[in-house]
Amino acid sequence: MRILHVSDCYLPRLGGIEVQVADLVRAQADAGHEVEVATATPGERLPGVHRVVAPMPFSLPVHPRGVRHLLRLMAARRPDVVHVHTGAVSPFAWMGVRAAVRARLPVVVTVHSMWDPVTRVVYRGLDAVWGWSRWRLVSTTVSNAAARPIRSVVGGRVPVNVVSNGLDVTAWRPSGDPPPRRDEGVHIVAVGRLAPRKQPVRLLKILLEARRRVPRDVPMRATLVGDGPARGAMERFLRAHGMGGWVSLPGRYSRDQIRRLLASADVFVAPAPRESFGIAALEARAAGVPVVARAQSGVADFVRPGKEGLLGRSFDELAGSVARLARDRELRESIALHNRETELTRCAWPSVLEGFDRCYALARARA
C-alpha cells in the first residue's frame, strides 16, 4: 500500500508527535508498505520526506500555499491513503486533509492531543464554516480519554477509532532477573518536556507533599528528565523549598540513557491531567516500573490501579499514591513483577499496524 503521512512537524524536530510518526513510518516500511512524508518542518533531505517549507515568523511549521503544493504532491505520488497527524492546532496538517478531500483520496486523521474545552469550541466553529465532519474522514486517536471529547464534537458523523501509540516493547523490557539495587532509597523518576502545560512545578509540589507523608527513615530521591521553558520555575521552586539535595534536573536524555535510568527506578510519575497517551509512562511500564498517573489521562488505558501502578484524580490522591508506593515496598515489588511478566501486546507495533490497516480499509470504503 502507498501511504502518505502529512504532519506539521517531523524530524529533525524532536517531540512526541514527531518521534511517534517517524517510528510509524519505519514500522510500516518494514512491513512492506511504500511510505512517504509531507511536512512543513525544514531540515536535511531524507528519503521519502517532502518538505513543503516557506520562510515564516518564528519558524512556524506552515506554508501559506500548502494546499496547492500538497495537491501537486498527491497527484504525482497517487497514494492509496493519506494519513494526517494533528495536535490541538495543526494548520499544515489540516491543509493536507483539504488537499486529500479535493483529490478524492481516502483520509485518516490521527489526533495526538487531548481536545480541551476551548479546542472543542474552535473545531465546532470550523465545522460550521467548512463542514469538515461531512468530508467522509476516518479519525483515530491514541486513547479512550482523548477519544471522548472528539466524539462529543463530531457526534456520529466521523468514526473515531482508538489506535494506541506504538512501542518496541522488547527494547524496553528488562531481560533476566532485576539487577541488585544499592540501598539509595526509593528512586522516583519522571520523563517529559518541561513545558507549563505538563505542569512540572505541580509535579514538584506532589513530590514535596509525598515526602511529608513518608517517614524520615525512608530515604527518597527523584530524577526529573527533560528540558523546556518551565525549567527556570522548577529550579526556583527547588531552591525555595530546600529540595535540591534529593531532586535532580539532569536535562534531556537519549533513549539509551532513559533505559538505564528506568533500571534504577522504583516509581514513575506522570501527573499531567491532559496527557492524551503518555509514551514515557508506557516505556516505564514496559521496563517494569510502577506508574503513578492521572485517572483522567490516556495513561489509564494501560495502567490499572493496583495492577500496573496507581491512579489519582486530584493532587491529594497523586501525592498519596506516590507516598504509598514509597512506604510499601511489598506493593512496589508486586507491581514491578507484574509489569515485567505481563506482555503489552496492544501497544506493540504489530497490533498498532493492524489497527491502522483497519482504519485505512474503512477510509477507502468511505471515500
From TrEMBL:
It holds the Pfam family Glyco_transf_4. Keywords: Glycosyltransferase, Transferase. GO terms for molecular function: hexosyltransferase activity. Residues 184-336 form the Glycosyl transferase family domain. Residues 15-169 form the Glycosyltransferase subfamily 4-like N-terminal domain. This is Glycosyltransferase family 1 protein. The keyword Glycosyltransferase applies. It comes from Sphaerisporangium album. One of its GO terms (biological process) is carbohydrate derivative biosynthetic process. PANTHER family: SULFOQUINOVOSYL TRANSFERASE SQD2. It comes from the Bacteria.
